[in-house]
Amino acid sequence: MNPAGKSYVCILHEYVQHALKKQPAYTFKEIENAATPYSATVLINGMQYGTGVGSSKKAAKAEAAKATLEVLIPQMKEKILDEAEPGHKGPNHQSDLDLSFFNEIRIEDPRVAELCAKTSEPSPYAILLTCLQRNFGLGDKNVKYELKTLKHQKNEVIMTVGKHTVQVPCKNKRDGKQRAAQAILQALHPHISSWGSLLRLYGSHSLKTVKEKKQEEQQITLLQSKAAVNAPNYAILNKLRQEMLKLRQMREAVQPIGRFIPPDDVGMPSTSGADLNNVDL
């Protein structure tokens, strides 16, 4: 794959189509941020990968594609950035430096839990819960695991999430819980091989909402600094007006459009629950 002269979106589509035999899709949403009002997320085989924000949908899409490339092929990150962004030199974020070490660590490496604890990253089981919540709306109640004692004082943990079941040897239940979570994560992400990629998706650096909230607070602070002495702060008032208009539009969108009155010759179904036992669920 030659990234020279190609956009992030083009590089991603080429890689996913040829290497993974899949077609990437994008979802967009509007966020409460004046500087970057649009957010885009890449979906591959129904799973969320990179997310990006921008001043337009096109810019957000490019950032999402860039973030996805960093997840799928972290070993080629510098080459892609150098080709797509001439003049780029080295990692441009501290988080890139922090996570680059994990690019060489396999998802099912037995040292992962210990390394995460030392670097203040979430444990494999916490990463699994974040993955399930973000992609499927599931929680810890949907994760079933048990410890089995085998011969010769050996232990094994069996974990089941949906249609995926794994069995991993372990020292104890705590160790087995983390290693089984790693195995489930690998099954859910067959296109990813390094733990660094999973941290980019679900680790502490992936929490965009905190950053976005901080940016909004900084915008309000800047507006406050524009106030003149002994005069109304029109910047703050305009911001308040914009937010009130948004709130009004949201409320109007959920107002009922009227009451349905059926014709006299049309019978309505009974509200009684007496026949519920006959429903084939």
From TrEMBL:
One of its GO terms (cellular component) is microprocessor complex. SMART domains: DSRM. GO terms for molecular function: double-stranded RNA binding; heme binding; identical protein binding; primary miRNA binding. It comes from the Eukaryota. Keywords: RNA-binding. Gene3D superfamilies: 3.30.160.20, 3.30.160.590. Residues 7-74 form the DRBM domain. SUPFAM superfamilies: dsRNA-binding domain-like. GO terms for biological process: primary miRNA processing. InterPro entries: DGCR8, dsRBD_dom. This is DRBM domain-containing protein.
